[in-house]
UniProtKB/TrEMBL annotation:
Transmembrane segments: none
Record-level Gene Ontology MF annotations: hydrolase activity
All residue ranges annotated as the AB hydrolase-1 domain in the record: 77-356
Range of residues in the leader sequence: 1-26
Native source organism of the sequence: Ruegeria haliotis
Family statement drawn from the similarity comment of this UniProt entry: Belongs to the peptidase S33 family.
Protein name per the record: Alpha/beta hydrolase
Keywords, ordered alphabetically: Hydrolase, Signal
Length: 367
């Protein structure tokens, strides 16, 4: 449910070939040192003042979490990464902002089999939606107990938002609100919309070569990986796939290649692709993704739902997310499109993403 697998695989192949400077990570709630620029420190001393990377056991499996905040008394925000298997932990220092950490205790989690939570003993039988939902609820309750909060905020990106919807369907009571970002809504419809947009754009731009490429896969099959690869390549080229910001992909790539992320060891980086492939194989099965449709599975929810979407995103089209938002019945709801952002909203526009989250926090009763 993520986007543009070719980009990710290129990155991960490069990881494995690079002489990456490994880093150690703390266990048992020990803080770790994070290198920040003098400008960051001078701008706001609290940013990154509490950073803790830990191993927790969820569903009998060791998994990694990262906690960042300025103030441990703030509401907990549990962020569910996309993918499946697309952990964002190596890049947290690039998209976190002082505003975000002033207002939340932000918890990132490498889900079972993903990123630093990968291990050789895991199989696709270990990576199922029901087990990931159980892990989410177990981690939620661990955080509620640790920070003595009756409820926390839950947010998910892409696949993570799908996991969030499945989690609140199982039990919504531990959450103030759910904040889906870059939500796919309905697999087949979203993929078809992305394809039609790409075809229209190729015509508008007079891009004959891309038109031929797209017409060669008609009729487009939203469950065929070869067709999806072509669609995603075009969306990426037109700034409507993962990134809208020119050059941002290179920045994120070289940030890790140069060993500037403090959160992964060399071995964990080399295992990233293995975790990505394992998770994708386990979850992105036609019978699972083909049936994914929130219009039919979640027409009514019993807690506030606040959507954030990249206005330029055609991988998980903003128009489809808005249509579902208008269809959904919930106690409170909002829809925030972010200009200049494609699928990776928090990468393209980290300040606007943080501002949207804080606005949601401020309008949500937490007492």
């Amino acid at each position: 449910m993520y986007s543009f697998k070719l980009q990710r695989r290129l990155l991960l192949l490069t990881f494995c070939a690079a002489n990456f400077a490994g880093s150690s990570f703390a266990q048992d709630r020990q803080e770790i040192a994070v290198t920040r620029s003098g400008e960051d420190v001078a701008a706001i001393e609290c940013f990154g003042s509490f950073v803790s990377q830990e191993i927790v056991v969820l569903g009998g499996i060791e998994q990694t979490i990262l906690i960042r905040t300025c103030d441990l008394s703030q509401p907990v925000l549990l962020f569910l990464h996309g993918g499946p298997g697309g952990a964002v932990m190596p890049w947290v220092d690039l998209f976190h902002t002082p505003l975000l950490e002033e207002n939340f205790v932000v918890v990132h989690w490498d889900q079972r089999g993903a990123g630093s939570s990968f291990n050789d003993d895991l199989t696709i039988e270990d990576i199922t939606p029901s087990k990931l939902v159980a892990d989410t609820l177990q981690l939620t309750n661990l955080l509620r107990d640790r920070y003595r909060q009756e409820k926390i905020f839950l947010s998910g990106h892409s696949w993570g938002s799908a996991l969030g919807f499945m989690t609140i369907a199982e039990d919504s009571s531990p959450y103030h609100a759910f904040i889906p970002t870059s939500e796919r809504v309905a697999w087949v419809r979203s993929m078809n919309m992305g394809f039609e947009w790409a075809l229209d754009q190729a015509e508008v731009r007079g891009d004959a070569e891309t038109q031929r490429k797209l017409k060669a896969i008609e009729p487009f099959d939203a469950l065929d990986e070869a067709d999806l690869t072509v669609q995603r390549e075009v969306l990426a080229e037109y700034g409507a796939g993962d990134f809208n910001t020119e050059g941002l992909w290179d920045r994120y790539l070289f940030y890790v290649l140069e060993g500037r992320s403090p959160y992964y060891t060399d071995a964990q980086v080399k295992n990233y692709r293995r975790g990505l492939d394992l998770s994708s194989t386990a979850i992105e099965q036609p019978e699972i993704v083909g049936a994914y449709d929130l219009f039919t599975s979640h027409p009514v929810l019993d807690l506030p739902i606040h959507f954030i979407t990249g206005a330029e995103d055609q991988n998980t089209p903003a128009d489809l997310a808005r249509e579902y938002y208008e269809h959904l019945k919930a106690p409170a709801k909002s829809f925030t499109p972010i200009d200049g952002a494609a699928h990776m909203v928090m990468y393209d526009q980290p300040n606007a993403w943080a501002e949207a989250l804080v606005q949601i926090r401020n309008q949500t009763p937490t007492n």
